[in-house]
Write a structure and sequence with these properties.
Blueprint lengths: L13 H9 L7 E3 L10 H15 L6 E4 L18 E6 L2 H8 L6 E4 L7 E5 L14 H11 L4 E2 L4 E2 L5 H16 L7 H6 L20 H13 L5 H14 L10 H10 L5 H8 L4 H6 L3 H12 L3 H14 L4 H14 L4 H18 L8 H4 L2 H9 L7 H11 L3 H7 L7 H20 L10 H6 L9 H12 L5 H13 L5 H15 L13 H12 L3 H10 L20 H12 L7 H13 L3 H6 L9 H10 L17 H12 L5 H13 L1 H4 L10 H13 L8
Parallel strand pairs: 1-2
Antiparallel strand pairs: 2-3, 3-5, 4-5, 6-7
Helix pairs in contact: 5-7, 7-9, 8-9, 12-13, 13-15, 14-15, 15-18, 17-18, 18-20, 22-23, 23-25, 24-25, 25-26, 27-28, 31-32
Length: 715
Amino acid sequence: MGTGDSRAAGQRSDLGRIKTWWRTLGGDRFAVLPPPTRSRYTQSDGHEDAAEMFAVRGIAAGTSFAYWHWQSQDAFDHSGDLTGELYLHWGGDHATVAAGLGAGPDGYRIVDGGPQGAFRLDKVTAVDADGLPAPEDTAGVRQLLARLDEPRRRTARETEYEPLTPAEERWLHDRLGDLLDRERATGTGAGAAAGTDGPAAPTGGPADSGPGPDLPAAARFAAPLEHRQALTPDETARLLSAWRETYAGRLADWRGRRPVLNALLRQEHPDAWEVAAELGPQASYALTAHPSPRSLELLRAWALAGNGSAVRGWFRTHRALREPDPFRAARTLSDELAAHPAPEAAQTALLDALRTADAEERPAPADRDTAADTVLPLLATLRYTTDDRLPRPLRVAAAQAARDTVSRVRETAGRLPGGEAADALAAVDRYEAVRDDLLAGTGPDLTGYEGHLGDLYHHYRTLSPADVTWLRDRLADPSTGVQGIAFCLELLYAHGEATGDDVEALLPRWKKELTKQYRTTYTEWRHPLVTLTCLALDLGHPAAADLLAWWAKPKPLWKNPVRLLTCLGAPDEAKAAELWEFIASGEHDTGHLMTWVLLRARLDSTHPLHVAERLIGAPGVRDYVLHRVLIGVADPAQPLWHYAIDPRSHSWWRRAREVADDPRLSDAARAIGLKAARDHCVLRHPDQVRPALTEGEVAEARAWAEARAHRTAAG
């Protein structure tokens, strides 16, 4: 069926067929939610929709249910054709959901992801006697490539794949040859089946237009071959030629580069080093797999600039060529990082490389209690903090890494055999004796994954003098990026610790750096220019006028949805009215209601919880936004700006409990907190909470919920 076919009411599309089948589901103790709209974007939204549907339709509490959300909807293209697995999420009893979904609609199959996973719906495809699909079968080709790309074993050093059968290898070579010989794909045939990954088109047309190989599609067939070191020199050379032509001056933009670079190095192609140098740190993985003096020098240069992947590759290559002992190698490289100096994150990456190497050299015996042995990597990190073989920067990095794991080590140590338990507890005591000294004046890596910063946000609910100093120093450091500025400035501002000096530190950078788009949908902090503007307004700083003038300009467009968040600075009734007018309009909320609640609380000299409480049931205020705001403002000294209640966060869990137990609040407000707590992963999926919980913390949380089982949750 071509994607351009016209279809009556969509019933000939995959989406239409699946919806028709979906409407037949449901029965005793099992229900399905209607197909999603954009408002059901996450699993949390799905559970909220289920609760609402149960209440409206009178469905019994405890009924199991299934649904898919808007992100899952990406499995369909614009014509409704299924281009990937459709993830079906669920709640309730896993066995009941599995029975309710059954085998799937005719022509499709359902794979059960288990009690901790989603169900996956996909097409049933035909294969020949060798297990291979027809090249024109887009779904069959996609499924085969997914199977061949699945590792059978993965370690820190290598990824191992099942060998190809002779028929599979011939089939891949044939498909790759077809794509290298043909005109660049126009979105049909094997290229579409492989899932093209074309980059942003350069000026003058799409990257894969005009004569030449279909490079994005070819990459999908090259990868499973090179995973088994089966790309031929001729194939590699042709891929390289097409890569250089299509991505001239921007080789790193091609997402299919990994197998080609590996093949170039493996085959000792004369252009391999030129390609690696142009790719920069993104070539670290390949250079590490092919250690040589030349790769060592490139990795070193990138590592000294602070690239984490390069640091780990540098460590492994240094050990392979110069110093096999991991501790001596780590000391040598740490000293060199400190001498330049490299960013603090480089020491953290080096510690990570050391931990991996140390674990590989001390594998646990096969007859050990694997549940107890999960503590061994945590214990090793904790011991590094007092290991004289390591220099102070690495011991500091270890102390930071151990900060959220020491309770788990102490709790689990008793399961270790023999004298190991006593040794582990002694290591905990030694760590706690040096912890404060090592952690003084330190903080998290501000350049890494923003979710990690959110994971440790609860550590900053109060700020010590050392925290304030560190945060201010980071703001004044020209190397701190936009994410780091946003994190540090938000904390200082919310806690009332930000000053005019912080404004002055950022003024030289705001026009060139802070006026850039920075998405904060999934963070606990706002865009740094919003926070800076609020601070300048509160202080009456002369820069406030320039900042407001910039916000008033029509461009850039990214700022329009967040401009009103600056109303929190030097609030007045006019700003409150303007902000409320926006809220009442029903426009998409990106922190507006929270801003209004905090603003109103400042004007009325009251706790923001009481402001939010008065909005319960107010016309035009969306419940799911208000519920998040109510919990997010529980502590006005550290409001939580995430766009939804984060079910994996310590911060949101604690605020939900506080709202549920706050005697100053109405029953309706407390019920909102109780519902949020009951829906949190601490109770539903404690293994998903980060940092990980101890068994004692989980038991305490369940006891807390059980003690309130008599209370009715809102919604």
